[in-house]
Amino acid sequence: MVDKGKQVDTSAAPPDPQSAFGAVMPVIADLLERGTRAFALGSWEEAIEHFGELASITEETFGSESQRYADCLVMYGRALLQHAIEQSALLAQKTLAEAAAGSKETEAKEGQPKEEGQGQPKATIQFEGEPDFRQVEEEAAAAAAAEEHDSGGDEDDDFAAAWNVLDLARVIQEKATDAKSQLKYAETLMLLGDVSMESENFGQAVKDFAAALEVKRRHLKEDDRELAEIFYKVALAYEYNQESSKALELMSDVQRILNNRLDALRAESTMEAKEEADSLQEVLEDVAAKIEEWRAPPKPVDIGALTEGEQLLAERAKEMLKKAVESGQINDITNLVKSKRDKQNEAKRQPEDSEGGAKRPKKNS
């Protein structure tokens, strides 16, 4: 889960009206307020616009190496990440809806009386309601490539933009040595880990979260809930990267930290401590359930638990596979299949120590 509301510390003492900053500071404050409000309302595009302009003005005013500029980049990158997540979800819903609609249309066509000549065996697999790919192979390939470019390509670009902006902030923040700046640096690393998780680049997510954990352990108490959160994020990245043993080890640390915090709260007598203790107990139960889930072997998919659209897709897939097996005309296409995750695991991360590797926000003309 992407953390909200942090790294907005761009305020300072009231500007001197006679100074060069006197005119620009009200503009910065206005953009900050507008962007923060848009982010809180989930208006990601509006937040991106305001925070992008804020970052450009802050760079011009305070310099490209200033911590103020890094703070604005983080706000800008967080808005880009949320927008990318939203677009990815919408694309998935659209794809599922179109597939379900296509399945229903095919079933309706199959229920119609067959004309003369239909139902005869063919030399290759031909699913009813679909075009003969032997005749339109080139057109289908071109259409598929165009669709992938228009949808998946844009999605990747959104996540890449968030990565570039946040990585630029990381380069600036890692140079600061005080505790406050280092904790901001850790938050940026966590956001980079969130980008990697959403992009299914789980190996990179492990590195980013682990780096954030190392920083936070130097500056937070052993019973701090923020420390438990980052331990959990590292564990989750390991689990998705199919390294369950390491994930379970880290989940033990999550339990240890939360139990220490719970003991400290029970020693207090305030109402706030009691409320936090009750909340923390629920969190511990969730953590225990997650550990049991990771320890258990994968369960078979329960068709009955799927949504209507997912059930239609599953049944259609079973039907097509049955027809293919009965025809004896199954083609081996495993060499053509390559998952998005495989591609990302092969890709190299941009050089961490080079500021030129990350793109800066465009300045308004």
User: Could you tell me the number of beta strands?
Assistant: 0
Rg: 26 Å
Q: State the assembly state of the protein chains.
A: single chain
> Between the first and last Cα atoms, what is the distance in angstroms?
35 Å
Structural class: mainly alpha
Stretches where pLDDT falls below 50 for ≥5 residues?
119-142, 328-359
Element order: H for helix, E for strand: HHHHHHHHHHHH
Helicity, in percent?
55-70%
Q: Specify the overall morphology.
A: globular
Count of DSSP helices?
Answer: 12
What is the percentage of strand-forming residues? under 5%
Write a short abstract of this structure.
With 365 residues, the protein is mostly helical. 67% of the residues lie in helices and 0% in strands. α1 packs antiparallel against α2, α3 (67-110) packs parallel to α6 (179-198) and α6 packs antiparallel against α7.
Describe the protein's architecture and organization.
Helix content is about 65%, strand content about 0%. By secondary structure, it is an all-alpha fold. The radius of gyration is 26 Å and the shape is globular. Residues about 120-140 and about 330-360 have low confidence and may be disordered. Helix 3 runs parallel beside helix 6 (about 180-200), helix 3 crosses helix 11 (about 310-325) and helix 5 runs antiparallel to helix 6. The protein has helices spanning about 25-40, 45-60, 65-110, 135-150, 150-175, 180-200, 200-220, 225-240, 245-265, 270-295, 310-325, 340-345.
